[in-house]
TrEMBL record:
It comes from Halomonas nitroreducens. Residues 29-107 form the Cytochrome c domain. Keywords: Heme, Iron, Metal-binding, Signal. Gene3D superfamilies: Cytochrome c-like domain. This is Cytochrome c.
Length: 111
């Protein structure tokens, strides 16, 4: 017996909402490289646990205040007039979006 459309609707909506993000996700090996970059390179200013250092904390609650695309743009282009560099020479748009998503969902909680 076919599954009724009302039961499939939530699954279809999730697939439509997350499909583009999942399709652009870097390969698992690249994700591991990005996570290393985040905790080592970004961590050199933002603290090795991302809870703050010379730069502000990159905690989940703080990162969720940004739209994912805006956060990705900040990663790629930096903040002029500050010590925050743009990472566009080293990262693709998909890399920056993955980092933004990672910061919003997997970064440390606020202490």
């Amino acid at each position: 017996m076919p599954t009724p459309l009302p039961r499939l609707l939530p699954t279809l909506l999730i697939a439509l909402a997350w499909g583009p993000a999942l399709a652009e996700a870097p390969a698992p090996a690249r994700q591991a490289e990005l996570e290393t970059l985040l905790y080592q390179d970004c961590g050199s200013c933002h603290g090795m646990t991302l809870r703050g250092g010379l730069g502000p904390a990159l905690t989940r609650s703080r990162m969720r205040a940004y739209d994912r695309e805006a956060l990705a743009a900040l990663i790629l282009h930096g903040i002029p007039g500050t010590a925050m560099p743009g990472w566009a020479p080293l990262l693709s748009d998909a890399d920056a979006r993955w980092l933004a998503d990672h910061l919003q969902h997997a970064a440390p909680q606020t202490p």
